[in-house]
Amino acid sequence: MKLKKSLGQHFLHNAFYLNAVADAAEVKKGDSVLEVGPGDGALTEVLLARGAKVIAVEKDARLIPILKEKFKNKKKFKIIEGDVLRYDISYQLGKYKVAGNIPYYITGALLKKFLSAKLQPKLLVFLVQKEVAERIARGKKESVLSLSVKVYGEPKIIKTVPRGAFYPAPKVDSAILAVKNISRKNFKRATHEKKFFELVRAGFSQKRKQLKNTLKHSDILRSVGVSENARAEDIGLAQWLALSKY
Q1: Which residues are in the Ribosomal RNA adenine methylase transferase N-terminal domain (predicted)?
Q2: CATH architecture of 5-180
Protein backbone atom coordinates (compact mmCIF):
# COMPACT_ATOMS: atom_id res chain seq x y z
CA MET A 1 0.00 0.00 0.00
CA LYS A 2 1.35 3.39 -1.01
CA LEU A 3 1.46 5.80 1.91
CA LYS A 4 -0.09 9.25 1.64
CA LYS A 5 2.22 12.23 1.97
CA SER A 6 -0.84 14.42 2.51
CA LEU A 7 -1.49 12.58 5.79
CA GLY A 8 2.12 12.81 6.92
CA GLN A 9 2.43 9.02 7.13
CA HIS A 10 5.77 7.73 8.40
CA PHE A 11 5.33 4.32 10.04
CA LEU A 12 7.49 3.19 12.94
CA HIS A 13 8.22 -0.53 13.27
CA ASN A 14 11.36 -0.50 15.41
CA ALA A 15 10.51 -2.47 18.57
CA PHE A 16 12.96 -0.53 20.73
CA TYR A 17 11.36 2.83 20.00
CA LEU A 18 7.80 1.48 20.07
CA ASN A 19 8.42 0.16 23.57
CA ALA A 20 10.03 3.47 24.51
CA VAL A 21 6.76 5.21 23.61
CA ALA A 22 4.76 2.76 25.72
CA ASP A 23 7.24 3.17 28.58
CA ALA A 24 6.95 6.95 28.38
CA ALA A 25 3.15 6.63 28.58
CA GLU A 26 3.58 4.34 31.58
CA VAL A 27 1.13 1.91 30.01
CA LYS A 28 0.02 -0.92 32.24
CA LYS A 29 -2.80 -3.44 32.50
CA GLY A 30 -6.20 -1.81 32.82
CA ASP A 31 -5.20 1.55 31.30
CA SER A 32 -7.37 3.21 28.67
CA VAL A 33 -5.26 4.60 25.84
CA LEU A 34 -6.52 6.77 23.01
CA GLU A 35 -4.11 6.18 20.13
CA VAL A 36 -3.83 8.86 17.48
CA GLY A 37 -3.15 7.53 13.98
CA PRO A 38 -2.40 3.83 14.55
CA GLY A 39 -1.28 3.35 10.94
CA ASP A 40 -0.75 -0.38 10.44
CA GLY A 41 -0.97 -1.09 14.18
CA ALA A 42 2.67 -1.45 15.25
CA LEU A 43 2.29 0.71 18.39
CA THR A 44 -1.23 -0.62 18.94
CA GLU A 45 0.18 -4.12 19.26
CA VAL A 46 2.63 -3.02 21.96
CA LEU A 47 -0.08 -1.18 23.91
CA LEU A 48 -2.43 -4.17 23.81
CA ALA A 49 0.36 -6.54 24.84
CA ARG A 50 0.72 -4.50 28.02
CA GLY A 51 -2.91 -5.05 28.89
CA ALA A 52 -4.30 -1.67 27.91
CA LYS A 53 -7.68 -0.99 26.36
CA VAL A 54 -6.96 0.85 23.10
CA ILE A 55 -9.29 3.17 21.22
CA ALA A 56 -7.54 4.00 17.95
CA VAL A 57 -8.63 6.87 15.69
CA GLU A 58 -7.45 6.53 12.08
CA LYS A 59 -8.19 8.95 9.24
CA ASP A 60 -6.97 6.78 6.34
CA ALA A 61 -9.94 4.60 5.34
CA ARG A 62 -7.62 2.13 3.58
CA LEU A 63 -6.10 1.12 6.93
CA ILE A 64 -9.38 0.37 8.72
CA PRO A 65 -9.91 -3.17 7.32
CA ILE A 66 -6.22 -3.96 7.91
CA LEU A 67 -6.49 -2.96 11.56
CA LYS A 68 -9.80 -4.77 12.04
CA GLU A 69 -8.34 -7.97 10.65
CA LYS A 70 -5.09 -7.68 12.60
CA PHE A 71 -6.85 -7.20 15.94
CA LYS A 72 -10.09 -9.10 15.31
CA ASN A 73 -9.52 -11.29 18.37
CA LYS A 74 -8.62 -8.42 20.69
CA LYS A 75 -11.59 -7.50 22.86
CA LYS A 76 -9.77 -4.48 24.25
CA PHE A 77 -9.33 -2.90 20.82
CA LYS A 78 -11.71 -0.47 19.14
CA ILE A 79 -11.04 1.30 15.85
CA ILE A 80 -12.74 4.55 14.86
CA GLU A 81 -12.45 5.94 11.35
CA GLY A 82 -12.20 9.71 11.26
CA ASP A 83 -10.20 12.87 11.86
CA VAL A 84 -8.96 12.88 15.45
CA LEU A 85 -9.18 16.68 15.51
CA ARG A 86 -12.94 16.27 15.18
CA TYR A 87 -13.20 13.30 17.50
CA ASP A 88 -15.39 13.88 20.55
CA ILE A 89 -13.60 12.63 23.65
CA SER A 90 -16.27 13.86 26.05
CA TYR A 91 -17.77 10.38 26.50
CA GLN A 92 -14.53 8.96 27.92
CA LEU A 93 -15.05 7.54 31.40
CA GLY A 94 -12.39 7.70 34.06
CA LYS A 95 -8.80 8.61 33.40
CA TYR A 96 -7.21 7.94 30.04
CA LYS A 97 -3.88 8.42 28.31
CA VAL A 98 -3.05 9.59 24.79
CA ALA A 99 -0.26 8.19 22.63
CA GLY A 100 0.61 8.27 18.98
CA ASN A 101 3.04 8.64 16.11
CA ILE A 102 1.39 11.79 14.82
CA PRO A 103 1.69 13.78 11.56
CA TYR A 104 4.08 16.69 12.13
CA TYR A 105 1.78 19.23 10.54
CA ILE A 106 -0.95 18.90 13.19
CA THR A 107 1.29 18.75 16.27
CA GLY A 108 0.14 22.09 17.66
CA ALA A 109 -3.53 21.40 16.95
CA LEU A 110 -3.39 17.99 18.65
CA LEU A 111 -1.63 19.33 21.73
CA LYS A 112 -4.24 22.07 22.01
CA LYS A 113 -7.13 19.63 21.55
CA PHE A 114 -6.12 17.26 24.31
CA LEU A 115 -4.43 19.57 26.80
CA SER A 116 -7.27 22.10 26.78
CA ALA A 117 -10.05 19.49 26.59
CA LYS A 118 -12.75 19.53 29.23
CA LEU A 119 -11.76 15.95 29.98
CA GLN A 120 -7.97 16.08 29.93
CA PRO A 121 -5.81 12.97 29.59
CA LYS A 122 -3.78 11.81 32.55
CA LEU A 123 -0.65 11.65 30.40
CA LEU A 124 0.16 12.40 26.77
CA VAL A 125 2.99 10.96 24.66
CA PHE A 126 3.56 11.92 21.03
CA LEU A 127 6.30 11.29 18.49
CA VAL A 128 6.96 14.76 17.13
CA GLN A 129 9.59 16.59 15.14
CA LYS A 130 12.74 16.82 17.28
CA GLU A 131 13.09 20.57 16.76
CA VAL A 132 9.52 21.14 17.95
CA ALA A 133 10.02 18.94 21.01
CA GLU A 134 13.13 20.91 21.94
CA ARG A 135 11.31 24.20 21.48
CA ILE A 136 8.60 23.02 23.87
CA ALA A 137 10.67 21.30 26.54
CA ARG A 138 14.21 22.67 26.36
CA GLY A 139 14.11 26.01 24.63
CA LYS A 140 15.73 29.00 26.34
CA LYS A 141 13.13 31.18 24.66
CA GLU A 142 9.39 30.72 25.11
CA SER A 143 6.78 30.58 22.36
CA VAL A 144 3.00 30.43 22.20
CA LEU A 145 3.33 26.65 21.74
CA SER A 146 5.71 26.06 24.65
CA LEU A 147 3.62 28.17 27.03
CA SER A 148 0.41 26.48 25.84
CA VAL A 149 1.88 23.10 26.82
CA LYS A 150 3.60 24.13 30.07
CA VAL A 151 0.53 25.85 31.47
CA TYR A 152 -1.29 22.48 31.51
CA GLY A 153 1.50 19.99 32.22
CA GLU A 154 5.17 19.11 32.43
CA PRO A 155 6.77 18.43 29.02
CA LYS A 156 9.83 16.23 28.80
CA ILE A 157 11.83 14.81 25.91
CA ILE A 158 12.22 11.09 26.56
CA LYS A 159 14.31 10.01 23.61
CA THR A 160 15.40 11.09 20.14
CA VAL A 161 14.20 8.81 17.32
CA PRO A 162 16.38 8.95 14.17
CA ARG A 163 14.66 9.44 10.84
CA GLY A 164 15.96 6.07 9.66
CA ALA A 165 13.73 4.29 12.17
CA PHE A 166 10.66 5.24 10.11
CA TYR A 167 9.31 4.08 6.77
CA PRO A 168 9.36 6.07 4.65
CA ALA A 169 12.04 8.11 6.40
CA PRO A 170 11.08 11.73 7.07
CA LYS A 171 13.55 14.53 6.33
CA VAL A 172 14.20 15.23 10.03
CA ASP A 173 14.67 13.32 13.26
CA SER A 174 11.83 12.88 15.73
CA ALA A 175 11.59 12.79 19.50
CA ILE A 176 9.31 11.14 22.04
CA LEU A 177 7.64 14.00 23.89
CA ALA A 178 5.78 13.22 27.12
CA VAL A 179 3.52 15.66 28.97
CA LYS A 180 2.84 14.56 32.55
CA ASN A 181 0.74 15.83 35.45
CA ILE A 182 -1.83 17.40 33.13
CA SER A 183 -4.35 19.61 34.91
CA ARG A 184 -5.88 23.08 35.14
CA LYS A 185 -4.24 23.86 38.49
CA ASN A 186 -2.87 27.13 37.10
CA PHE A 187 -6.39 28.41 36.46
CA LYS A 188 -8.85 29.00 39.27
CA ARG A 189 -11.55 30.16 36.87
CA ALA A 190 -12.40 29.62 33.21
CA THR A 191 -12.16 33.38 32.69
CA HIS A 192 -8.53 33.30 33.83
CA GLU A 193 -7.74 30.54 31.34
CA LYS A 194 -9.26 32.58 28.53
CA LYS A 195 -7.47 35.74 29.61
CA PHE A 196 -4.11 33.96 29.83
CA PHE A 197 -4.24 32.85 26.20
CA GLU A 198 -5.51 36.23 25.00
CA LEU A 199 -2.57 37.90 26.74
CA VAL A 200 0.01 35.43 25.42
CA ARG A 201 -1.27 35.80 21.86
CA ALA A 202 -1.20 39.59 22.20
CA GLY A 203 2.34 39.50 23.57
CA PHE A 204 3.59 37.33 20.71
CA SER A 205 1.64 39.14 17.99
CA GLN A 206 4.72 41.30 17.46
CA LYS A 207 7.36 39.25 19.24
CA ARG A 208 10.25 41.45 18.11
CA LYS A 209 8.76 44.39 19.97
CA GLN A 210 9.30 44.99 23.67
CA LEU A 211 6.33 44.07 25.86
CA LYS A 212 5.97 47.63 27.11
CA ASN A 213 5.06 48.57 23.53
CA THR A 214 2.91 45.49 22.89
CA LEU A 215 0.94 45.30 26.14
CA LYS A 216 1.07 49.04 27.00
CA HIS A 217 1.18 48.53 30.79
CA SER A 218 4.67 49.25 32.09
CA ASP A 219 3.46 49.56 35.68
CA ILE A 220 1.98 46.04 35.66
CA LEU A 221 5.09 44.62 34.02
CA ARG A 222 7.23 46.07 36.79
CA SER A 223 4.89 44.79 39.50
CA VAL A 224 5.48 41.16 38.46
CA GLY A 225 9.21 41.59 37.96
CA VAL A 226 9.26 41.86 34.18
CA SER A 227 11.76 44.26 32.64
CA GLU A 228 10.26 46.94 30.44
CA ASN A 229 12.77 45.96 27.79
CA ALA A 230 11.74 42.30 27.80
CA ARG A 231 10.22 40.66 24.76
CA ALA A 232 7.49 38.02 24.88
CA GLU A 233 9.93 35.15 24.39
CA ASP A 234 12.08 36.30 27.32
CA ILE A 235 9.63 35.71 30.16
CA GLY A 236 8.54 32.40 31.65
CA LEU A 237 5.24 30.78 32.48
CA ALA A 238 5.05 32.07 36.07
CA GLN A 239 5.30 35.68 34.94
CA TRP A 240 2.76 35.22 32.16
CA LEU A 241 0.36 33.76 34.71
CA ALA A 242 1.00 36.67 37.05
CA LEU A 243 0.38 39.18 34.26
CA SER A 244 -2.84 37.45 33.24
CA LYS A 245 -4.30 37.94 36.73
CA TYR A 246 -4.39 41.71 36.26
Answers
A1: 17-183
A2: 3-Layer(aba) Sandwich (3.40)
